[in-house]
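Page 37, continued from 36.
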């Protein structure tokens, strides 16, 4: 194939060759996908319906759940369908769309996690000024900036990636279309501009990561000064889930996009992709709900309201 204009489709990585393992992959990914939809859907509904959760922290959590639903819906359903129908194909436009939405949701989520770190810093380190700093207008602007930055980066990276001539076939060594795997199909050094753009984006993301780390240094310093054990416990219960989410998300996405080609292998690439594209949307609702009494209470009331309505 001489260039990308002659490509009608790409062939994605198959999880298994035998029918039994394909159906096992179908069942496993379907279960994860439905669990992610249910968990994030419950959070979105609880925050939207319970006026006590109409605070900056839960507003950002609602946005995170929306991004998680979009993120996992970009990659997993196509993989499920391919396993069910015993195919590997994805159309050229389908691949372009996957690249765009994967980058969009991942970078928007990363921006939002940075905003959430700032929100926790303001709540714990500047409690007297918190409602002034994080008023409703500021929260909407911050969330909108996170979504807009993801959109702009996605547009830039997608246009740049698919402007590169592809002459190494059409087999993508991943279960969804991913920029590093598409670059492997490019001709000679034509991928260097997009590779450079990835590095620049990673540097900006690293600045955000440093901001998150510094925020938590200040937060934990302030928390340790809280005299009551109950107050310290509440502060840690709000911050530790967010820190766990950030750590998993940042480490795996950086590894996927910045690791040298010499470290690349199908098994490693697959594990890393699952860890940054599939696991966070599924486990985020569990992480945030297990250590959050207000959210658990809201969900319990929501379930009771649904049960009483059906009775």
């Amino acid at each position: 194939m001489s260039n990308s204009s002659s490509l009608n489709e790409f062939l994605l990585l198959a999880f298994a060759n035998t029918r039994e393992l394909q159906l096992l992959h179908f069942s496993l990914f379907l279960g994860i996908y439905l669990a992610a939809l249910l968990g994030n859907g419950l959070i979105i509904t609880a925050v939207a319906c319970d006026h006590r959760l109409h605070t900056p922290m839960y507003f950002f959590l609602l946005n995170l759940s929306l991004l998680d639903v979009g993120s996992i819906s970009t990659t997993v359903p196509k993989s499920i369908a391919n396993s069910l129908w015993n195919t590997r194909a994805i159309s050229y436009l389908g691949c372009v769309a996957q690249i765009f939405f994967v980058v969009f949701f991942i970078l928007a989520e990363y921006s939002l996690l940075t905003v959430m770190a700032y929100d926790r810093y303001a709540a714990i380190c500047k409690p007297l000024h918190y409602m002034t700093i994080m008023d409703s207008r500021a929260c909407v602007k911050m969330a909108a900036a996170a979504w807009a930055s993801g959109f702009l980066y996605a547009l830039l990276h997608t246009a740049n990636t698919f402007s590169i001539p592809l002459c190494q076939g059409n087999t993508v060594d991943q279960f969804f279309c991913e920029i590093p795997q598409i670059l492997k199909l490019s001709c000679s050094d034509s991928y260097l501009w997009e590779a450079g753009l990835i590095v620049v984006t990673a540097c900006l993301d690293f600045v955000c990561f440093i901001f998150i780390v510094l925020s938590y240094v200040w937060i934990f310093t302030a928390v340790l000064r809280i005299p009551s054990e109950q107050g310290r416990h509440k502060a840690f219960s709000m911050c530790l889930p967010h820190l766990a989410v950030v750590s998993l998300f940042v480490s795996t996405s950086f590894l996927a996009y910045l690791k040298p080609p010499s470290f690349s292998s199908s098994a490693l690439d697959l594990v890393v992709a699952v860890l940054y594209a599939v696991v966070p949307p599924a486990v985020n609702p569990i992480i945030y709900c297990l250590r959050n009494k207000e959210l658990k209470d809201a969900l319990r009331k929501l379930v009771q309201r649904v049960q009483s309505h059906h009775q």
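Confidence is low (pLDDT under 50) at residues 1-5. Flag for discussion at group meeting. The two ends are 62 Å apart (CA to CA).
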